[in-house]
Amino acid sequence: MYYFHGCPSWQWFYPYHYAPFAMDFKNITHLQNDFEVGEPLKPLEQLMAILPPSNDHLLPITWRPLMIGEPGDSPIRDFYPGDFEIDLSGERYTSQGVARIPFVDETRMKKALEGLQLTRDEECRNRFGNDVVFLDVTHPAYVFFKQFGNNNDDDEVCAQIQLL
């Protein structure tokens, strides 16, 4: 479904660190596979969900204490442990192992981010946008794509801010 019809659900995830065994698929025809599509995380929220604390400098300054603050000061600090197990399962290098880190609870994360101020530049980076196609003026498709020029003033402001 994902490959031919798009993402069936932005909220659903496989809540285990390891893939299922083939024998786990026995008698699964009775399982429901109806998903609520929902909305994907915004770009900065996605970074907050996947970055380790050592990359907190890539996040808005107002969000960083949630990741690197004292455990009692942040309602989501438990998503970002300082130490965690890496299951090598016979592998030689740690990059080949499975990092046993907690799964981020999207609802808790979004609630923790509520009310935290973002700069205008961060607001522009943290929104859904349009696809961008870069073509040289000599490219045969340039004239075709030019007719779909950007007419949204808000997009122009954000584009200008991002270029500074």
What does this structure look like?
The protein has helices spanning 2-5, 43-50, 64-68, 106-113, 120-125, 142-146, 153-163, and strands at 85-87, 98-100. The chain has one domain. It is 29% helix and 4% strand.
Tally of DSSP β-strands: 2
Which ranges are low-confidence, i.e. pLDDT below 50, for 5 or more consecutive residues?
160-164
Our measurement of the CA-to-CA distance between the termini, rounded to an integer number of angstroms, reads 41 Å
Strand line-up of the largest beta sheet = 1-2
Main β-sheet: number of strands, strand sense, barrel status? 2 strands, antiparallel
What topology emerges from the helices and strands here?
Blueprint: H1 2-5, H2 43-50, H3 64-68, E1 85-87, E2 98-100, H4 106-113, H5 120-125, H6 142-146, H7 153-163
Antiparallel strand pairs: 1-2
Put the structure in a nutshell.
The protein is mainly alpha-helical.
Features:
single chain, 164 residues, mainly alpha, two-stranded antiparallel ribbon, 2 strands, 29% helix
